[in-house]
């Protein structure tokens, strides 16, 4: 494991430990977390956006929002969010709106009534005669195996539904081209002159390894993953299972009723995996009087997850090779 004093969690707690409300903390993390992708890496062709450093004015605004969250609560509305991506997108829409930059959010483009071409996540002000298209994603990927040229395909979602490679091919191959589609033109008040992807998230590595990957931001948020059978090797003994809407910012609260030791966590996950093979994100926490604070996080996966992940990556590689052959 990494040095916990030099972790993403430690940095976040130092700067944002005064924020108490989960929604405001999540927004602060979206704005201030390190870039997941290396903006300057040549493979991204200058098409990766960055939130940049949080200014003192935005820092004061977040502090005020934590004291009076009514504007944020009104923007999110009464609905109960079950999709983390949608929740993060609504938080960013609120921020862009408050900054006076938002022109449109979630604008669907249809070629006909039954033919949806795509959707603009965000259209932002880019001058009197231009718009910027931001394609936004919040992703959590686990690295399983690395072969030269296939690093991004080896970063797979916990449920094996996608990979970083597949996601970026979709963004670059289709979504960022939406502004040029004929069906979009009648709905755009100004031309889209810049289209970029803004990708936030966490990457998780086999316990004890922290490889450097080309194209990935050097300071990105990271954690570990291990199979359930490997859990006993950890020296930590205070854990929380993180609900999905708390996957963004490192956890911090005055107390946590669902705190578990390692034996309790093992029993809980063993029972869960019997009916649901989905990996579970847990936080290793430090509990002190008046505060429970995340110091590290990781996915615990069923013992057969490695084999299923390797099979999925191989299948995706074959499909990619076939598509390249077709193109050629």
What does this structure look like?
InterPro entries: DUF1853 (IPR015003). It holds the Pfam family DUF1853. With 328 residues, this protein is of the alpha/beta class. It has one domain. 30% of the residues lie in helices and 26% in strands. The protein has 8 helices and 10 strands. Strands 1, 2, 3, 4, 5, 6, 7, 8, 9 and 10 form a 10-stranded mixed sheet that branches.
Give the helix/strand class.
Answer: alpha/beta
How would you state the average pLDDT, rounded? 91
Sheet of most strands: 10 strands, mixed
Order of helices and strands: HHHHHEEEEHEEEEHEEH
Number of helices: 8
Q: Count the strands?
A: 10
Short description:
It holds the Pfam family DUF1853. The protein is α/β, with parallel strands linked by helices and 328 residues long.
List keywords for this structure.
alpha/beta, ten-stranded mixed β-sheet, 8 helices, 10 strands, 30% helix, disordered C terminus
Explain the layout of strands and helices.
Elements lengths: L7 H9 L5 H11 L23 H12 L2 H7 L7 H15 L3 E11 L2 E11 L5 E13 L11 E2 L7 H10 L18 E15 L14 E7 L11 E3 L10 E2 L8 H12 L6 E9 L2 E11 L3 H23 L1
Parallel strand pairs: 3-5, 5-6, 6-10
Antiparallel strand pairs: 1-2, 2-3, 3-4, 7-9, 8-10, 9-10
Helix pairs in contact: 2-3, 2-5
Protein name: DUF1853 family protein
Pfam families: DUF1853
